[in-house]
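Technical annex, item 7. During the second reporting period the consortium partners agreed on a shared format for inverse folding records so that results from different sites could be compared directly. Each record opens with the tokenized structure and is followed by the designed sequence. A conforming record, contributed by the partner at site C, is shown below for reference.
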């Protein structure tokens, strides 16, 4: 069983798209998968068509209620978020156990899954820290642009600090390059990431693909919306790479 925090402190790099579509790809490969929205913007929940759920992750991390798990499809469940999660930062910071709330909430359900994917906010605050303490691994989503690559060291330092002080077993699962295309500049950025972080970068990369954005706009994953698209191909390849690494 793997709990993977999907992070980057920059928005728009593809964290939510990855959480949703990787989760669906893993489920299509027969892996029981839970995707968790811990972003106050609730983009993951909205991307799958879940608006204003009756219960959401706020009650679990702030009020000690059980995780509200919704079934989306065969082998695929969701813990939704809502805008009221924006109040969680203050409440959790005032709680001596505030950094461990998600880890505690997962204890009773984690053994029901092969994979748990956590869509983190575009920040490195207490909600992201909750995810990193709960996780067994971290996937860093890296947009093939200069500024996205420049911020990688900040994220790696945070993960190392979490490992040293709060979660000694957490590992870097890999860096996932997203929004790559055939331009020389973006190809160069991708090659630079692979050169610098040799051995830590997934072989699979996610190409720019309009179908990914279109799928989100209609509340569907890429496999429902356009199963023959480049986006579907890329996320299925990533899922198979991760499953292969798990078997290895």
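Designed sequence (site C submission):
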């Amino acid at each position: 069983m793997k709990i993977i925090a999907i992070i980057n402190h920059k928005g728009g790099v593809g964290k939510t798209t990855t959480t949703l579509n990787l989760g669906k790809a893993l489920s299509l490969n027969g892996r029981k998968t839970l995707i968790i929205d811990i972003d106050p913007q609730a983009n993951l929940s909205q991307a799958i068509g879940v608006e204003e759920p009756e219960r959401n992750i706020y009650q679990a991390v702030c009020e000690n209620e059980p995780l509200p798990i919704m079934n989306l499809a065969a082998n695929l469940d969701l813990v939704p978020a809502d805008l009221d999660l924006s109040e969680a930062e203050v409440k959790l910071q005032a709680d001596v156990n505030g950094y461990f709330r998600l880890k505690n909430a997962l204890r009773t359900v984690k053994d029901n899954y092969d994979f748990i994917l956590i869509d983190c906010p575009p920040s490195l605050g207490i909600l992201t820290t909750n995810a990193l303490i709960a996780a067994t691994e971290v996937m860093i989503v890296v947009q093939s642009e200069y500024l996205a690559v420049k911020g990688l060291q900040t994220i790696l330092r945070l993960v190392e600090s979490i490992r040293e002080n709060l979660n000694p077993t957490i590992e870097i699962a890999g860096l996932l390059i997203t929004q790559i295309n055939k331009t020389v500049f973006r190809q160069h950025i991708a090659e630079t990431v692979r050169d610098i972080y040799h051995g830590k970068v997934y072989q699979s990369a996610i190409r720019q693909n309009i179908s990914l954005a279109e799928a989100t706009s209609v509340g569907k994953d890429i496999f429902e919306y356009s199963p023959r698209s480049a986006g579907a191909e890329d996320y299925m390849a990533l899922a198979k790479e991760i499953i292969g690494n798990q078997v290895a």
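The chain has twelve helices and seven strands. The longest strand covers residues 171-178. All partners now use this format for quarterly exchanges.
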